[in-house]
């Protein structure tokens, strides 16, 4: 039957692919082989996007050598943003919340600070940010986005009074 590289507990664009069950997720997470394959698939997709996983333990990322060419592809084809959202959600399902944080921060940095991915900015803010499961980590990233968003007064992803007081 059809399967997904990054399965979720919700239906995606492929109507034939069945959503994961909680039991399947638990079975995947208990299998060392499945989890190693999952990380390899994650690294493969990252390389496709021009990103390298620097540290498997922490989830730290950096630009790959071919980043400029791959970022052109990301800027040109918005369907990649749906895939990235799916990957982020799947990372959370598989217990890699720390990987989620690094990937979202990577995209926030590239879109808001370095301004290399202008066409990914809305997805990073509207979708990627809100895949983060930890409320505290999500708040941290919203604050980071707010700090780098221009013009700051147009930032709509969090209350400005609370962002000003955030520590």
Automatic annotation (TrEMBL):
InterPro entries: OGF_rcpt (IPR006757), OGFr (IPR039574). It comes from the Eukaryota. GO terms for molecular function: opioid growth factor receptor activity. Pfam families: OGFr_N. PANTHER family: OPIOID GROWTH FACTOR RECEPTOR, OPIOID GROWTH FACTOR RECEPTOR OGFR ZETA-TYPE OPIOID RECEPTOR. Belongs to the opioid growth factor receptor family. This is OGFR factor. It comes from Haliaeetus albicilla. The gene is Ogfr.
């Amino acid at each position: 039957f059809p399967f997904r590289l990054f399965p979720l507990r919700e239906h995606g664009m492929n109507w034939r692919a069945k959503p994961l069950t909680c039991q399947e997720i638990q079975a995947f997470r208990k299998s060392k082989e499945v989890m190693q394959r999952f990380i390899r698939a994650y690294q493969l997709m990252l390389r496709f996007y021009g990103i390298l996983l620097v540290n498997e333990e922490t989830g730290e990322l950096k630009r790959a050598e071919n980043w400029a060419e791959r970022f052109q592809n990301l800027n040109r084809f918005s369907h990649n943003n749906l895939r990235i959202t799916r990957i982020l959600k799947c990372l959370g399902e598989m217990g890699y919340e720390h990987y989620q944080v690094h990937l979202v921060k990577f995209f926030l940095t590239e879109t808001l600070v370095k301004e290399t991915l202008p066409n990914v900015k809305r997805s990073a803010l509207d979708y990627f940010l809100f895949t983060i499961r930890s409320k505290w980590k999500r708040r941290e990233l919203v604050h980071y986005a707010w700090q780098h968003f221009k013009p700051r007064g147009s930032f709509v992803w969090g209350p400005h009074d609370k962002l000003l007081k955030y520590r």
